[in-house]
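#struct-help
A.M.: can someone run this one for me? Single chain, 151 residues.
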Amino acid sequence: LLKTQDFDQPYYFAIDKDATIYDTDENVEILKVVQKYRDAIAARDTEALKSIVSKDYYENASTTDDLSDDYGNERLDEIFHDYLAQSVKDIRFIIEVKQLTQEGLEYYVDYQYIWNFRYEIAGQSYWQSKNDTNRITVVREDDAWKIKAGM
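D.P.: on it. Structure tokens below:
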């Protein structure tokens, strides 16, 4: 079974002690993509984020009945630039992987996260915190693992 100590920065990227994720090359590679996602967000590195996004990326913002907030690759540059690169000034992001499952050619990584970030709007600085769960969908594309949904 994979354990937290199999990955860099165990405080920021961990595997739940009760998770049953087998130590296979494929599982390690998939979780390393999720760790790269976490690291890129924490570093506000938009180029690193773009490098792990599938050409078929689609986000429904967890609102399956409301299509108005859905987007794909066409809005990622705007979102990365406007929010992550410009507005966010400091971020702490912790991921604890709860489960990794496969359905067909897609892999789902369920995780709990905690993030605290400082952002500026109109010269004012604010902190925001969130503790929630999420699912990232990972697929094989062009001989690499890419995130198809869930950022």
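A.M.: thanks! Helices lie at 25-43, 46-51, 73-87.
D.P.: also worth noting: Residues 103 and 139 are 11 Å apart (CA to CA).
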